[in-house]
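We store sequence with structure; for instance:
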Amino acid sequence: MRRVLMAAALLLMVLLAPVPMASAAPTARVHVIVCPTSLGVNNPPKPVASSATMPASAAHLVVYSTTSGYLQILGPRNLACQGGIGADGGANITAWSASSPNAGIGHGGVTAVVYPTCLACQLTLACPFFPAALRALRSQYSYLNCGSQPLGQIVRRLSADAVAFADPAGEYVSPHADSLVPSNSPYPANGVVVYDIYRYRGYRDSTTMGAVCVLPASEHAVCTAVLNEFLATQVRNFT
């Protein structure tokens, strides 16, 4: 997975047209906001640090976190947020602009999901981008549909396990899993999906994760920072 993350970080920068990176890697401390989180299992919450070390390019952003820091995502300041952690370990977190209806990111925001055990959830998230996931979905969950990719979507394969995508303004955001689909958006959307299949104690296992950033085109550099950090830290935590 380390090879996956290195390739993903480099190619994601090309896809999302980021600002140039310095050779030395300066860092900054950013504020961590713990969002209201629904819990499938009512375990006592663990404390979450009030700040986190991030690349200096993210100094103007904040970290939005579920209870106990289980799933986190960078995002612009002053967003509303909420998260959820299921009994099976699946989780989501969303931070959105106050102008967005129904707590969606269509008018600006970020969202992330992770599915460490729910196979149907994993395949529904991954199937628009990974042929193996599409075959497995049709074979094991024929009653579920795999959403089509929006017109004009650009997809770059970062590695065998990861893709980055860019959806133009006015299109529904992929991937087409409920947790990641905002309403028709006036802003472009950028995202990543990781579909990691591995062997654990002789058995096949998998984890699927995704993150989407929806912001005005002038803020593409923010989405680059958000998604690169998601690949660098959150994916490592779950795979």
Summary: DSSP finds four helices and twelve strands in the chain. Confidence is low (pLDDT under 50) at residues 1-11, 17-22, 175-179.
